[in-house]
């Protein structure tokens, strides 16, 4: 289901105000491709397939614009936008532009190491955000997706411990998330191909 919602709204009515977003992401079993998935003993299994949802650059721009509108309608004007790097960097920048917010930062958290592979727990990586500035300020925390929700929960807690009034926004939520962000554009149970990451790195290309 696509739309932009505030936390506490039922998923079946995922809109803010009278406006619901038009579908901008595509999903298809035809987009399934081969990947290496560890079995129960951690040994990679070849020839597994996964159905994917693809977000285009145009869809990304529209999603971030809709999230920014929802935040304004909600009456929450952040003083600072903080991205969860790396996935939240581009959404945070686009949403910050939409809101006219110039004070931006990032908190580096690693959890996913590949498709379907994660660390035991999210880890905060250097360089660390100077959080003394956040005390008493309205902060919008942005990520690309709330999957398990553990990364988002960790980042929210860290910012709140420094005295910030925190609200969170993501492009996608998944049924598996342990926390619901304040603002979300779409729900999906599929692996998501984001336009900035689905092609892999240029280093990978050079190696082949």
From TrEMBL:
CDD domains: PRTases_typeI
GO molecular function: glycosyltransferase activity
InterPro entries linked: PRTase-like (IPR029057), PRTase_dom (IPR000836)
Phosphoribosyltransferase domain: residues covered: 57-198
Coiled-coil boundaries: none
Keywords assigned: Glycosyltransferase, Transferase
A Pfam family the protein falls into: Pribosyltran
Domain of life: Bacteria
Keyword Transferase: yes
Stated name of the protein: Phosphoribosyltransferase
